[in-house]
Amino acid sequence: MYKKILLPVSGKSHGQRAQKALKHAMGLCSGEIILLHVTEPLPQIVGGEAHAELKREEAAKGLTLLCPPIETLEKAGISFHTRVDRKSTRLNSSHGP
C-alpha cells in the first residue's frame, strides 16, 4: 500500500482515464491521493489585472475538471487534496555541480 499517490487529471476524454486511474489508485492507497491539473502557460503579452483574471479563470477551469474525482473520493471517505498549477515555460535542471 502506498501512503500518497499523485493522480494527474488532464481533462482529455472527459476525465474517463482519470476516473479509471482513480479507481485503481483507491485500491492501492492507504493514505492520501493528490489530484493535479496543470494548465498551459499564459501569454507573456498579457499583464496586470488581465493576467490575474486569466490566472483565476484557468484555476477555476482546473478545479471544475477535478470535481468528478473529488466527488468519488468524498463518497469513499478517502483523504485527498487538490492542486492546479501552471505549466512552466522554463527548463529546470537538477544537475549537481
SSE topology sketch:
Layout: E1 2-8, H1 16-28, E2 29-39, H2 48-76, E3 79-86
Parallel strand pairs: 1-2, 2-3
Verbal overview:
By secondary structure, this protein is of the alpha/beta class. The chain is 43% helix and 27% strand. The chain contains two helices and three strands; from the N terminus they run βαβαβ. Strands 1-2-3 form a three-stranded parallel sheet, covered by helices on one side. The protein is elongated, with a radius of gyration of 16 Å. The model has no long low-confidence stretch (mean pLDDT 85).
Could you provide a short overview of the structure?
With 97 residues, this protein is of the alpha/beta class. The chain has 2 helices and 3 strands.
What number is the mean pLDDT? 85
Radius of gyration (Å): 16 Å
Q: Low-confidence spans: pLDDT under 50, at least 5 residues? A: none
**What global shape is seen?**
elongated
Percent helix range:
40-55%
**Tally of contiguous helical segments:** 2
Count of individual beta strands: 3
Structural class: alpha/beta
Oligomeric state as shown: single chain
Descriptors for this entry?
43% helix, alpha/beta, three-stranded parallel sheet, 3 strands
